[in-house]
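Quick one: co-fold with glutamic acid.
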Amino acid sequence: MNENIRVRFAPSPTGFLHVGGARTAIFNWLFAKNKNGKFLLRIEDTDPERSKSELSEQIIRSMNWLGMTADEPIVYQALNIERHKQVALELLETRNAYYAFETSEELEEQRMLAQRNKVPFKYNRASLNLSEETIQKYLAEGKPHAIRFKVPEGITEFDDIVHGKTSFRNSDIDDFVILRSDGSPVYMIAVVVDDHDMKISHIIRGDDHLSNTPKQILMYKALGWDVPQFAHLPMILDEEKKKLSKRRNPVSTEEYKEKGYLPEALFNFLTLLGFAPENNAEVVSKEDLIKIFTFERVNKKSAVFDMKKLNWINGEYIKNAKIPDLISLLRNSKLSHELQIDLSSFSDEYLEKVFSLMKERISTINEILEYGLYFFKDPAGYDEKGLIKHWTPEIRPMFEKFHSELIRTEDWTSPRIEEMLRVFAESEGQKAAPFIHILRLSVTGRTVSPGIFEVLDILGKDTVLQRITDFMQKN
Ligand code: GLU
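Sure, here it is.
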């Protein structure tokens, strides 16, 4: 174990685990595993109104589903609030922070003024210039106050592992609040204190936090603490190069689970959002990703969430998966409930045959139910175009005769049924195709399916004959 490498994933439990968050977690996890360091999880639950314990649990569940667990007990940030306050007061004592007595109305006015003058709002530091006497008087009167960090003059620079040298002019940074007037610490200080206390060596997080970094570095310095290293990951955009939005694709990790994606496949796909293996390989196991992960191959530019690629990768994982594993995923799928399919009435042996036939053709577990619904339910209707095209008055009597022959078929195996159909068609002076089309339509309701003889074999004689009878009665 490399004691010096300690990273953390720090989600706020105000929502489910977003796929962007999952990607951040994965990069932290891969980096830690590659370096033999520790991967920690900190739930940033300091917002009492928006944080929900169910959401923390859901995030942890999604992380576990993706195969990531924390190497030390999970840290709940809300439990550290007293410590955050204490550090804020320490900054006050060392004059790196000061009391700010403006009311929210006064601040709003300043904000409006900035807007009118079309300049970015920056707190005007009025409270910084108060005399010691006035401050003491206000405090004695119990005048509400926040505590603001005093941003020093100069430039804040750091060497971002992804972006390289990055620098900010301190004059562009507001004297930000660290303790609100109700005494509660803000994210900016909580994160610094916890990262320090947890001995975090590398802060790996999304690009959206880049502008927080100089503020946090200034606090580390004011406190005399070692500054960790930072790696800011590129944003993930949708195919239209816009911010990922649930209107286009699911953004919750749990939803991918429900839709029948394999955790290993989603993990693989999310890793490729920003990380490029040397030979541009696309299907890479978790074990190999651990071995090859390096920030040298992490892109600075935003990554595109390409659903087609995810489906392809998932399909590859399904092809290579063990059928019993696929069966258990199917049995746990939500879609079966929505489609009112009682999977417990189907044996593993039956499902194994269905998967053997379908596994090369599906890209999610749910597609077994979507494309192969007829393995689980009688057709609710028949493809209309298929009916018009194939169920012609000429074929009808011949197909009825074929049905009677089928009843007499004893050896119900795919080669035997096929042979029987071909011999029958020939004896009628017909081609095999018209019979095959109707067989498919009557048994599956559709005009496309995998090899129909294999489908008939799996469904079994009784079901097939019953479906053909129903078909002929209804059409
Ligand atoms: N809790 C923050 C978030 O969910 C992350 C904090 C950090 O990584 O520094 O965006």
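If it helps, Residues 19-34 form the longest helix (16 residues).
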